[in-house]
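Thread amino acids onto this structure.
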């Protein structure tokens, strides 16, 4: 049963990514020129995507992968290129349509694009679930609940990112809160990786899952930490 805080934030994220920020997100995730700040974000996101993909087996033939919060679909495409059978889901129908339009012709039929909630049980079971920057707007207890929901449908690993709570990020967010929020972006919810790991360890729904690799990407305005949960 999703919590009220999860449902509230999910509604805000759908509004934000499907309408307010849709054009900006489409541009950021394309080859079109972007400002210096956004270029650092694009470079960091490219590095993060490569990191998460490197934590999956090289040969993904016969593996089922969920791209949870797929946005415009770049990670799903790379997984499909390596042979995976991918379900890519996002709250924003418009971003999902962009992802469909961007699918290279040679990969037709390899990705099942859906608009909806990543926790939809109707999506079935997966070998690996990847949630790149799609949990960073949820509070830590909700992140753990989402991880429990995703891991219940994953056979091998759940890869995800968080906004790591660091002194510099806390300062950046504090300054951000003093400024008028022009684009009404839902707040990012930084969490210390150690706190998240201890919440995960205490959650009985995640018994049998262990913390694996972790790596922080910090390029200018992009700060995100990749984490891995795996089960034997
Ligand atoms: C920062 S974007 C990242 C998109 C993509 N993973 C990427 O890295 O390009 C976060 C995305 O997560 C999606 N999202 C957030 N919560 C979701 C949920 N509960 N179910 C499905 N998608 C969700 C948002 O709609 C948004 O498109």
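Threaded sequence (232 positions):
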């Amino acid at each position: 049963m999703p919590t009220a805080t999860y449902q509230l934030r999910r509604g805000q994220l759908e509004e934000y990514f499907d309408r307010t920020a849709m054009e900006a997100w489409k541009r950021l995730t394309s080859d079109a020129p972007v400002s210096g700040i956004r270029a650092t974000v694009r470079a960091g996101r490219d590095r993060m995507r490569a990191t998460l993909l490197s934590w999956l087996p090289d040969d993904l033939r016969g593996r089922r992968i969920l791209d949870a919060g797929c946005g415009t679909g770049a990670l799903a495409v790379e997984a499909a290129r390596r042979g995976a059978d991918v379900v890519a889901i996002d709250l924003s129908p418009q971003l999902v349509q962009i992802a469909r339009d961007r699918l290279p012709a040679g990969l037709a039929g390899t990705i099942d694009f859906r608009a909806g909630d990543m926790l939809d049980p109707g999506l079935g079971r997966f070998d690996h679930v990847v949630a790149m920057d799609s949990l960073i707007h949820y509070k830590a207890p909700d992140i753990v609940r989402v991880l429990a929901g995703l891991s219940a449908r994953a056979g091998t690993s759940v890869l995800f990112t968080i906004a790591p709570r660091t002194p510099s990020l806390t300062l950046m967010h504090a300054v951000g809160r003093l400024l008028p929020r022009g684009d009404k972006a839902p707040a990012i919810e930084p969490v210390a990786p150690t706190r998240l790991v201890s919440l995960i360890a205490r959650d009985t729904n995640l018994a049998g899952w262990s913390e694996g690799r972790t790596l922080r990407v910090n390029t200018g305005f992009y700060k995100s930490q990749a984490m891995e949960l795996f089960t034997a």
